[in-house]
Structure formats: structure tokens, C-alpha cells
Description:
2 copies of one chain form a homodimer. By secondary structure, chain A is an alpha/beta fold.
Amino acid sequence: xxxxxxxxxxxxxxxxxxxxxxxxxxxxxxxxxxxxxxxxxxxxxxxxxxxxxxxxxxxxxxxxxxxxxxxxxxxxxxxxxxxxxxxxxxxxxxxxxxxxxxxxxxxxxxxxxxxxxxxxxxxxxxxxxxxxxxxxxxxxxxxxxxxxxxxxxxxxxxxxxxxxxxxxxxxxxxxxxxxxxxxxxxxxxxxxxxxxxxxxxxxxxxxxxxxxxxxxxxxxxxxxxxxxxxxxxxxxxxxxxxxxxxxxxxxxxxxxxxxxxxxxxxxxxxxxxxxxxxxxxxxxxxxxxxxxxxxxxxxxxxxxxxxxxxxxxxxxxxxxxxxxxxxxxxxxxxxxxxxxxxxxxxxxxxxxxxxxxxxxxxxxxxxxxxxxxxxxxx
Amino acid sequence: xxxxxxxxxxxxxxxxxxxxxxxxxxxxxxxxxxxxxxxxxxxxxxxxxxxxxxxxxxxxxxxxxxxxxxxxxxxxxxxxxxxxxxxxxxxxxxxxxxxxxxxxxxxxxxxxxxxxxxxxxxxxxxxxxxxxxxxxxxxxxxxxxxxxxxxxxxxxxxxxxxxxxxxxxxxxxxxxxxxxxxxxxxxxxxxxxxxxxxxxxxxxxxxxxxxxxxxxxxxxxxxxxxxxxxxxxxxxxxxxxxxxxxxxxxxxxxxxxxxxxxxxxxxxxxxxxxxxxxxxxxxxxxxxxxxxxxxxxxxxxxxxxxxxxxxxxxxxxxxxxxxxxxxxxxxxxxxxxxxxxxxxxxxxxxxxxxxxxxxxxxxxxxxxxxxxxxxxxx
Lengths: 378, 378
């Protein structure tokens, strides 16, 4: 049963994605108990909206939780990184795509689609290819050739769409229904369910006080929140951690509406940030997320590009190379003033290799082999 | 205790890397039993040459073993992919680097180094940064700026060395000893031990008939071989699988010497292949590997660039995007004529994102938003 998290209306059609009121539908809460199993799908079998077809799995999830060696100590926190860059297409999107593709096959679709230029596009292309489904990837006119390479390699059909990117999201859902293409966009209900695994895996290892979540469409945040809420409703954890949505100052429609006490987000005009992966100016889960933040007393923090790049550098000192958007959580950490010793988890959403062309070329020294001793000694 | 796998001489100095006869030293066989544990280090605790310092770990290992959905069926095989691209720096190197860095810290070194331009450079840079060690990465004059970006991001000192790249390997060991820099090169004894985890994890899931291993320096092959041999000596498996070293035709010094019945490899002049990550013309573990291949009746197969690129495409249909070198195993599969139903594991060594700039730009269609229905229908 699907339910609108904003107006509460319920729907029986599992293929439906949005409520009549315009908001994203989601599955009602699942309750259950954990089992012994090799992967998160098996261990939390009670909590998925559809039976995971493990034959389609690429081994997504069960990512490492890495303890900070330096930054945590400097800030007086017990700090952990949830390294989602170790997923099959090197971002968290794979968890949601796996369930979305499982659903598409069960519903009998022959084609799937998504509206994305980055992580989600590659993820949907990969899983569709594996499942033997056609993939239609809709990207904005300005998408760089380089980004699309990591998508077209899986054999997906890539369409550059000229026109308003925000409208494209809703058009894709409308046309998908008519043409028999199942769109697994950023807040597809099955996609959101897949992200719950991040909450489940964290809870298996520790009792966090605070989770930092880079936030664009709002889908990842909603998934992690639903995961923790289901654990609590199932009696598996005692308290919910504080969830913090982190946006880039240059594109922070959710934080702005939250701060201004508005019930609805408004389009963020002229978005500009290095954190492209969280630069959605009109996030489709924005209003649902605002409601969550207020209901649970959670936070929204906007950080500057300078802070994001500094956090990216700090993460590299811990041995973790992430795309700028993934460093936003750490950038927010310094603004939060958490109590000493707080247990904090920052979600590292995607690999730094995804944005390598934007990375600076580091300094290199030149050295003739004959002078190597001198060069190394320096 | 270290031992030369070629001449048999033994050494007590654990910091030593090569035998007086010039061949790479390795640890004697470990025996033990498996335990319950979250990661491969804990589960195979008896088998490591040094106590793993899990505080330094980035979550390397425990990578997914993915069953083929298409290619295996077409070839009449039970085919699996060991996805090493899901490691912290997106290649198998991290398993060896973790143990190497653990050893460097225990030995009291303040600096580590490596000779590499690709996966190993990024891996050593990342773990050194995490451990608070200086990293000296020696690369050839011709290394591309793009490749070095993924290394310098971790704060390593990168030195372009003008001169013979083969000699650089041995010079680095000699100078490292003198200058107090611990070089974790391709066949460092601790590095080889780290790769055993691949064998252990495969054996936990199935009893393979054949393992396909892209082979450059020979270090990965030696590690996987040692892992299976130790499992057999410990009574944990009954038979060794057939191991197949796979090289690119354009740089196949080991396969050539093997075929010609020689005891020593010879430098492969003018190497040329798309599979850069396995293009070592004078592999430092070459002779040790030749001995292994003959002792156990294993195989060496050289494949063409065309076959490698075709295999890379076939892997993308399974949802796996790898660098060309990583597709070599699958390319070799068609030449092997294995018995119907054989259980085969191909090692996918590194992520396709590492060689993205060489990937072809796929076809994209252009479409105005107003005509989207027509574009999608096509």
C-alpha cells in the first residue's frame, strides 16, 4: 500500500509514484526482525516492499563504515564515514536502483528510464543492462560528454532533452505511464526503500547520535529516515538519531524554505555550486522532507563551496576520495556544535573518480633516474 | 620467515623483499582455520603474516562475487565475477596495500613509496595518508596528468622519473632501504599476502574449477595461488582450482617464456596494448610465476586487444564497467575450451572509471521537451 507522506491519501496501485496532490508516494512502514544473512537484503528481509531478486543484484549495499582517524579527534567527536562509493557503480544510487529494477521486472515492463546526468543515470543503465531491460536515460542539454561516457558504456539509450529540466521530471512520469517505460527517478517509492539499508547497516554497528546526509532531491534523506523509523517502530533501536540534511549554499531550496518557516519549497533560481550532484533547484521530495524535518526536530544546513572543497581535502587525508557533493556532510559538521563525544556518521554518496576532470592536477616533481636518491631524500 | 620461491633460500629479516638470487621473497605457508567475523581479515586471522591493524583499514576486501546472467549461459559455464572494483580506491591493490602499510608502521617507517602509474599509486597514496605516513609515488615520464590526479588528491608526493622504468623498480628498493622509505611495490611480500583474501572469499562461497587472473607483475596471481594452496594445506578445500594467468598479446612476457619452455622471462620489447594496467614488459614476479604454472600444471593465455575490448563490452551487459585490463580474463575464457558446466571465476581488477578518458563517447539523441513522447517512443 502506497501513502502520501504529505496529505495522507492512500493508493493500491504499486506502480503509481505521485499523489494527486503532487507529492511523492511512499510505502507504509514495515516492521520486522533481523536475520542472519550474507547481505543487507537477506538480513532485513521483512522490511522490503518487494521480494529482492538477488539474481539481479550486483552486490550493492553492505558498504564499509570507516572510523575517522584524524578529523573526529580534532573535533572531539566519534566520527564515522559510510562509504557508499564502494557500490557497484560507485554511488549509493545502486541500492535504490536494485529494488526499482526488481519492481519493473515484476510489473512486466520491458523498458525503464531515469532523469539524471550523473550517478543515477549510470546506476539505472547498469542494472537495466543486467536485467535485460531497455534503458532510456534523459539528460539535460548541458550534460557533459564525459559524464555520459560512464552511462552509455552500459548500452543505455541517452537522450539530451532541450527545455526546462524541472518539467522534464514530471513529463517523464506522465509519458512513461503512457509508453510503458518505468521511470526510476530520484524519489521513486522503490528507490527510497532501497536506501533504508544504509540505516539498517549503521544500526548493526553502532548507535549514532547524528547522521549527515548530502541532500538534493531529498530521496536519500527520506530513505534513511524511513529506515531508522522502521527500526524504532520494530523495537530494534530505542531512539532515532538526529538527521541533518546538508545542501550547498548555492542551491539550497530545502534549507531556505525550512529556515523561512514555509510549508512548500520554491524553485532556487540560478543554482551555482561545485557540488553538482546535489544541485537540484526544485527537489521533487522537497515538501515531504520539510515535513519530516519539522516532525522530528531535525536540521537543514547549507554550506559554502569553499567549505565543501576543504572537507573534500580533509576526507582525502582519511584515505577517502569523494565527489564534492559527498563532502558536504563533513563541511556541515563544523557548523553544528555537537556535544563532545557525539557519535556521528557522514554519508559519502559517490566516488571522486566521477568528477575527476574537475579535480586539480597536483604538483609533480621531475627527476632523472640517476638523481633519484637526491630527489627522494628531499 | 621469508623464503625465495625460486631458489629456496630463507631470510629472517621481514623487511627484506628480494632474494640474493634476484627473485621476490615470500612468506612461508600459513595454516589455520576460519572464524566468524565481519571481514576477511578477522575470518582468516590465522593466515596473515602480521596482525592486521583494523584501525588503518578502509574496508578493503569482502567484495561481491556476482553470477553471470548472460555470458555464462552462452558459454555453457557457471561463470562468476569477483568484483574488485568495489574496493576503497576501486582496485584489488587495496588488499595488499593495507597489509603493507600495517607492516611499514610496525617496522617504524615514517615514509612509504611505490613505483606505479595507476591503481597501485592511488592505493598506496590513500592508505599512507590515512596512516599519517609520507608517500613517495614514482611514475614514468610518460604518465598522463589525468592518471596522476587520482593519486595527488591524497596528498602524496609524485615524482616523474626520467629513465628506464624497469630499472626504476630495483633502484627504488635499493634507495628505499638506504633512505628509510618502505617501498610497497607490486610484489612486496606483505602485498602478496593481502591478495590471498580473494582466494579465501571465493572458497567461502563456492568450489571453483578455474580462476582467470589478469597478470602483469605476477603479484596478484602469486597471492591468489598462495591463498588456495594454504586452504588446501589446512584441509579446508580438497583440490586446487586451475589458475589461468591472462596477459595481453602486446605485452605477454610470461606467456611467451612459458610457451617456449624457458626458465626465465625476457624483457618484452615495444609493449603495446589497450590494457595498460597489465603492460609490465619485465614483470618482477615473472620467474616465480613460471615456476608456479609448471609445478601445478596451470595455464598462461595471451589475448588480443580486440578480444579485450569485446570482453569489456560483454561485462558492461552484465552491469559491470571495468578497465580494459580487467576484461582480459573474460577474453581468455573463449580460448580455454573448459568442460561444460565448469565453475569459473574471473577477477575484475579495477574500475572502468579509472580509464574513462579512453572510453568511447556513446551515441546520444537530441530531443526538444515538446517532442519527448516521439523521442521516447522510437
